[in-house]
Amino acid sequence: MSEYTTGELAKLTRVSVRTIQYYDKKNLLKPSHLYENGKRIYTEADLNKLKLILMLKNLGLSLKSIDEILDSQNSTKVMNLLLEQQLRYLHDQLKTSKSQIKMIEEIRRDLPEIDQIKIKDIRDIESAMNNKKSLRKVHMTMVIIGFPLDFIEIGTLVWGIMKGDWIPFIVGMIVVLLGAAWLSRFYFNNTNYICPNCNTEFKPKFWAAFWGKHTPRTRKLVCPACGEKNYCVEVYDEKKELAG
Predict the structure, then answer these.
(1) Where are the bilayer-spanning segments (predicted)?
(2) CA–CA–CA angle 13, 15, 21 (5° rounding)
(3) CA 75, 79, 84: angle at the middle one, nearest 5?
(4) Residues 180-237: pLDDT tens digits?
(5) At 52, phi and psi to the nearest 5?
(6) If 0-12 CB within 10 Å is exposed, 13-18 middle and 19+ buried, where does residue 84 land?
(7) Number of domain units in the chain
(8) What is the mean pLDDT of residues 127-151?
(9) Is the Cβ–Cβ distance between 165 and 159 less than 8 Å?
(10) Burial class (CB within 10 angstroms; exposed 0-12, middle 13-18, buried 19+) of 199
């Protein structure tokens, strides 16, 4: 059986020697062996008891309460209930932490674009994140509708090449052009842009936006407020949502 001095026990449980001496003084943790020279020896059972005391203390119990629980006949049942409650609390904390980690990762990922929006407090960050989600819905709608249009275009083209019948291709192209026109209108009706120079949010004229150079999340436009031409950041038009 393993035996430990006061110093070794303190090192194993990461507490001070004075703490163990205090628990001894309070009759909460007595050594299994006490030699005439004053040397105290603790066993494996004492080590486990100390770990239990420290765990209960971390749960917020006073030393008096811990002493009463350990001496009670239902000590095992009481500790099981305490541990079950602590496990539930830790699981809830874990869910909250995971949610916070996810939010922080999203903010870090989108920070270069959020930085273009005027942020004064955490509510502005939350608003910016909601704006990003709404913008993603616009993009998703365009993908969902755009995919069938691509299928019609390619499918009728292949049909025309293989069969020599170009009527389906002509009809298909009319459908594709009408669909593309609707998608363009849908996109520009639901999006605004923020000028990186003066932070003004504005909706450009359709053709200016249509022909403007662009990246996946920016478009080169002239700001109506400051007159500067820059790559402006795409955002969701929240006024459109409020009007609806």
Answers:
(1) 138-160, 166-183
(2) 110
(3) 155
(4) 889 888 888 888 888 888 888 899 888 888 888 887 778 889 999 999 888 888 888 8
(5) -65, -40
(6) exposed
(7) 3
(8) 80
(9) yes
(10) middle
**Assigned token pair, 119:** 């942020």
* Helices (H), ranges, the chain: 6-13, 17-25, 44-58, 63-71, 75-114, 122-163, 167-189, 206-211, 238-243
Q: 7-16, 24-33, 43-52, 128-137: which range is least confident on average?
A: 128-137
What count of other Cβ atoms lies within 10 Å of the Cβ of residue 118? 10
pLDDT, position 55: 86
For residue 55, what is the domain's CATH number? 1.10.1660.10
185 & 92 share domain:
no
Tokens 């402006």 map to which residue?
232
In this structure, the number of other CB atoms found within 10 A of the CB of residue 193 comes to 25
Report d(CA 219, CA 209) in Å as an integer: 7
Identify the band that residue 42 occupies on the pLDDT scale cut at 50, 70 and 90: very high
C-alpha to C-alpha distance for 58 and 82, rounded to whole angstroms: 11
Residues 60, 15: Cα–Cα separation, whole Å:
17
Q: Within this chain, do residues 31 and 98 fall inside the same structural domain, yes or no? A: no
Q: What is the mean pLDDT of residues 21-34?
A: 89
Residue 66 sits in the same domain as residue 103:
no
Could you tell me if 34 and 95 lie in one domain?
no
Q: Which residue has the tokens 């960050």?
A: 125
Q: Are residues 55 and 150 in the same domain?
A: no
Q: What is the domain extent for residue 103?
A: 79-114
Task: Tell whether 96 and 8 lie within a shared domain.
Answer: no
Residues 135 and 238 in one domain: yes
State yes or no: pLDDT of 242 exceeds 50: no
The answer on 234 and 215 residing in a single domain is yes
